[in-house]
Amino acid sequence: MIEPDGRLAQLERAARALEIDAASRAAALERVAAHAEAYLARLERGAVLGAAGADDGWRGGLEFDEQPSPIDDCLELLGRHVEPSGLHIGSGRFFAYIPSGGLYYSALGDFLAAVNNRYTGVGSAAPGAARLEGRLIEWLAGVFGYPEGADGDLTSGGSVSNLSAAVVAREAAGISSREVERTVVYLTAQSHHTFVKALRIAGLSECVVRRVPMDSGYRMQAEALEHSIRADRAAGLNPWLVLATAGTTDTGAVDPLPAIADIAAAERVWMHVDAAYGGAFMLCPEGRERLAGIERSDSLIFNPHKGLFLPGGSSVVLVRDRDHLRQAFRLRGAYMQDDKEQERSACDRSPELTRPFRGLRLWLPLKLFGLAPFRAALAEKLELAHHFHARLSREPGFEVGAPPDLSVVTFRYRPERGDADEFNRRLNEAIRADGQILLSSTTLDGRFVLRLAVLGYNTHFEEVELALEVIRELAARLADR
Ligand SMILES: *Cc1c(COP(=O)(O)O)cnc(C)c1O
Asked: By CB count within 10 A, which of 38, 72, 124, 344 is most buried?
């Protein structure tokens, strides 16, 4: 065998540093696992909100050196400068925005996916992975009651899922750029902004956006939708898509899906359901009842990184008719001709080509835990939100709305004197400063309200009781001043 010499030999010696041996891998993994354990221990006890600290550039820790740094130094930099600050959304005492879990087995799925590094854009490149993901999509489509012939894509988040759905619906309706100004979208003031952003990215920002009126529970008024569609059609416009939400981010409200489905079918309008937050509740009977009608939509999105407690990076878009999905996204380069297309290819259903083996972070926890604990946890979250709602309704001074559709409760304190908005803003700040729990706020009908969202896999009765106690005590203290 001939050996490289001179420059090539030198380069090879230096480059081979990237190929670590089994002992080095085991040692690094052991250090990383220990570090992760320390974070999880702090997460259980520590404050839900960490201070940002000073941006001191980590005294050089951020810079790269030509020489290797010891792993313990790197982990110590992360532990000191990266991990403590900001929201600890994996805490069981996190009730702000929409909680997003962080099931440990999902992290292990990511680890395996990255180590195996299979090419999951094209099915023939990793047939096993393609089948696993295809089966996951089928299972999810079944959970939502979609018929055979439905298809979908595992995406990185709800924003991308909404974008895919907007593009699929645009292509299915064959909307050309000349027709955009006549094209009408129906949604409500509570629809998620990422769908409006999706319209912009999809070249549809000039379409007509109708904000359909809502009932007192922030749900779309179906009659008003029907009225609006008919008036638009009579005026020569092209009613194209209605966006229904199954669990709004602000209040967890579920739009009247059966009535919207009736109207969409009669008026031949595409029905898209944003179930990014609420979709997971399909796994328990109580939730299925509340989301009835979702199975009649043309497309929907759902975020496992919310309701299935996965760490950030997992959403799914489902489309009732697989042809529409492929019509929107199938386009191939000449160099891909070796693929005989006997396997399901994600690239034909997605804006992406190369992508991570995203299915594994969802598949592994579902297998290792089984479905039963997920179903129980989701029913539990619905009950906990009702418990919180009922308890706070009986507390003097608090103003609580109707019982929650899902697991978000909005409320505010009504002080005897002074401005209520200002009081609740201060209450929110006091809760953040206290750090035991975290809520977030929103504006409803021009009023500042607090919201408690229950969706942590590690959020149980004890954490909700703690939230009640903190809220009650801090409100009393502020009211006494
Ligand atoms: C979270 C959410 C989104 C956006 O999802 P990302 O994963 O954050 O991009 C869209 N719609 C609703 C209703 C949501 O709750």
From this structure: 344
